[in-house]
Amino acid sequence: MTGIIDYNAGNISSVARALSSLGLEFLISKRPEELATAERLIIPGVGEAAFAMNQLKKSGYDSFIIDAAKKGIPILGICLGSQIVMDYSEEGNVDCLGLIPGKVRHFPDDLPAMGLKIPHMGWNNISYRKTDPLFSGIRENSDFYFVHSYYLDPSDIEDITGVAEYGIEFSCALNRKNIFALQFHPEKSGKQGLKILGNFATLTKESFGC
């Protein structure tokens, strides 16, 4: 069973619809104890990092997620959820969960001068940097749907599995052991996005030797 973390900052309904369309078992909960037996966790998210971290701390989900990560439970952060698994976000200047070392940075202020709007919104193809089980069966340069003003900047480039270009080349997919972070929205990215969610649903802590 896949647990979907509801922390008042997530695109819960679209993720739930995507998993339902795949016939996958899932549970949405605001209470960490209800997801204690989940085989994997999804942290969705739309909004602002400081608010999100405040909500996680209020609910106890911050320590719950960190403990689950240590146990080898597969964890997938989507959009805002991908950002709060990092060490720190420039959005609200807030410390995050620290599951993947690195920072979340704002797109350069000169992008509008290049004719590029912030936030980056719409379809963008991605290039692979290394093998990632989430992209199994998905061709390189497939398009995915993005909505964001901030991007992932990991400390270790070995954590980068996918990049995209929007004025600059930026990391849009990370994997560090059992932690996965996707800046784009797989649940809004058609067949290729559903394939990613289906691939994630095959992972358990045993996939990582735990």
UniProtKB/TrEMBL annotation:
PROSITE patterns per record: GATASE_TYPE_1
GO-annotated molecular function: glutaminase activity; imidazoleglycerol-phosphate synthase activity; lyase activity
Family annotation (Pfam families): GATase
One BP term from GO: L-histidine biosynthetic process
Keyword ATP-binding in annotation: no
Biochemical pathway: Amino-acid biosynthesis; L-histidine biosynthesis; L-histidine from 5-phospho-alpha-D-ribose 1-diphosphate: step 5/9
Enzyme Commission no: 4.3.2.10, 3.5.1.2
Keywords, alphabetical: Amino-acid biosynthesis, Cytoplasm, Glutamine amidotransferase, Histidine biosynthesis, Hydrolase, Lyase
InterPro entries: Class_I_gatase-like, GATASE, Imidazole-glycPsynth_HisH
Annotated compartments: Cytoplasm
Active-site residue numbers: 79 (nucleophile), 185, 187
All residue ranges annotated as the Glutamine amidotransferase domain in the record: 4-200
Primary subcellular site in the record, as a coarse category: cytoplasm
Known function: IGPS catalyzes the conversion of PRFAR and glutamine to IGP, AICAR and glutamate. The HisH subunit catalyzes the hydrolysis of glutamine to glutamate and ammonia as part of the synthesis of IGP and AICAR. The resulting ammonia molecule is channeled to the active site of HisF.
Protein name (record): Imidazole glycerol phosphate synthase subunit HisH
Organism of origin: Candidatus Gallitreponema excrementavium
Taxonomic path: Bacteria, Pseudomonadati, Spirochaetota, Spirochaetia, Spirochaetales
